[in-house]
Amino acid sequence: MDNRIGIRRIDSLHFFVRDLERSRAHYVKQLGFVERAVSGPEFSYAHGAQAALLEAGDVCFLFMAPISEDCECATWLGMHPEGVGRVVFEVDNVEHAYHVLRARGATPTSAIEQGELLDGRVRWFDIATPLGATTFRFVQRRGMRAMFPGLLRHERRRGVHGNRFGVLGIDHLTSNFLTLGPAIAWLEQVLGFERYWDIAFHTQDVRKEVDGGSGLRSIVMWDPHSGIKLANNEPAAPAFESSQIYRFCVDHRGAGVQHVALAVEDILGCVRTLRERGVGFMPTPDAYYDQLPARGIAIEESIEKLRRLQVLVDGEGDQYLLQIFLRDAASTFDDPEAGPMFLELIQRKGDHGFGAGNFRALFESIEREQTRAA
Hints:
By secondary structure, the chain is α+β, with helices and mostly antiparallel strands. Helix content is 25%, strand content 35%.
């Protein structure tokens, strides 16, 4: 028997939010997503929520806001601020995936369910995860991607086919935990993911004079068959509670998805336009760019252009990546209950790592933002 789950790709992410219109306006008007569907009466009755399905390139986000006090969305928001409440994976065969996961010790939170769509059918089931109340869903589709029964799909407008800022797809997801061991064991033993990359970082490693400092340990897991990568962080001692990973877990009220990395085709053009539209990004120290030439990365881009846009670069030789991190939702909306989740933009130019050289810059940037917001 084939013991692979048969994951094809990340089908969609389900965000549980309190204010649907706020999220919809931000992602459509500022980030250039296209609204493809909204909840109809059938969906709202079944889920006790209103919803909007937004797409950019190969990325599908379903935002759900409760209209009933006892719905799944409201229960999740009673435990966490707004954030990713469900990660949905498309699989080859939902029954095979269900039996393989059960045999590995997964905890299903539903039986296999199914529903009819206008152009096909969808079957799915959910399992519990180490990510607090966040679940993983496995779906088998015949028909339109990311659609579920009761969602009313908009007629596609001529000339509107994707994200105007060149978003291609989800590069990886990153989650934060207070302790990594149980989560990594679960990803290995239940999902069958393998170790791909890891790093440990602490500010005392580079600034001995720091009193206490803070740090993290990160392990990236992947499914070699689909290429899906899940990065996972924990705080590092000394000064465990000073780590921004610890702070995330406090603000999120438990483990959860810290950020979603979106692959883009032209990060400089994308960031330039987003900044013009008022999108906020995490700041990077100016000294970071002064040190770039000594790192020996053969980049095509002008360092001054990177400096102006505050785009990070990492890699070795002529194999590198460019990345930048948007401000978290709580800062963007000036509302702690919007949550600490944020987006990353990444353009890979031959480097398939996770920006080890940028960990310090990102880590300290997040901590500066947290201090500013406190």
